[in-house]
Every structure is written in C-alpha cells, then in structure tokens.
Amino acid sequence: MSPRELDLLIEADRELQRDRFWPAAMVASVIANVNRGKDTEPFEPADFMPGAKTKEQELREWADAVMRGEKFEADPEAAAEFKKQMQASFSNLKAHA
C-alpha cells in the first residue's frame, strides 16, 4: 500500500466516523440551541462531535496550506471515477439537447 493509498484510507475512515456521529450531534445541537441563552452563540453539530473541526477551522487550515504553497492536485483515479459517475448521471441530457 502506497502512502497516498494509506492517506486516502485514513481520510475515508474519518468521514465514516463523522457520518456515524452526525445524527446524534445534530440532535444534541438542536436541544442545546433550544435551551441556550439569548446572548450566547448558537451551537453547531461539530460542537458535539469528538475531534470534529468547525467549518472555520477547516477553512483556516486550507488557507494556511495555500499560504505555505502546498499544491492541491486531483487524484487521477478519483477524477476518472467522478467523470464516469457524472456521465452516467447526466447521459440522458444529451438526448434532449
């Protein structure tokens, strides 16, 4: 297994964990928001997910990576698979065009 494949596997596991925690975190954030004070910030589901990052944290990390000069290149295999999925999903549009 290449380092790239290992990284993709780890990221897929993180996404799976997020998906599993999301429903409970959403319920917890709704309950917390119903009971919060008027002058407190609203809660987000990420506040109730272990190790989760807020959208702001993810955006800051991405911006920091861009500032460091990191390059973001698409995985050719993932891009080819995405292209196939889009062609299959929208193949009926060519017939109507």
Protein model, in words:
By secondary structure, the chain is mostly helical. It contains three helices and no strands. The protein is extended. It starts with a helix and ends with a helix.
Strand content: under 5%
Shape: extended
Question: What ranges have pLDDT less than 50 throughout 5 or more consecutive residues?
Answer: none
Please state the structural category: mainly alpha
Record field, number of beta strands? 0
Classify the oligomer. Answer: single chain
Number of helices: 3
Element string (H = helix, E = strand): HHH
Cα-based radius of gyration, to the nearest Å: 19 Å
Helix content: 55-70%
Distance between the termini: 44 Å
Global mean pLDDT: 84
Q: What's the story with the biggest beta sheet?
A: none
Architecture blueprint of SSEs:
Blueprint: H1 3-34, H2 55-67, H3 76-96
In brief, what are we looking at here?
With 97 residues, the chain is mainly alpha-helical.
Key phrases:
97 residues, mainly alpha, 3 helices, extended
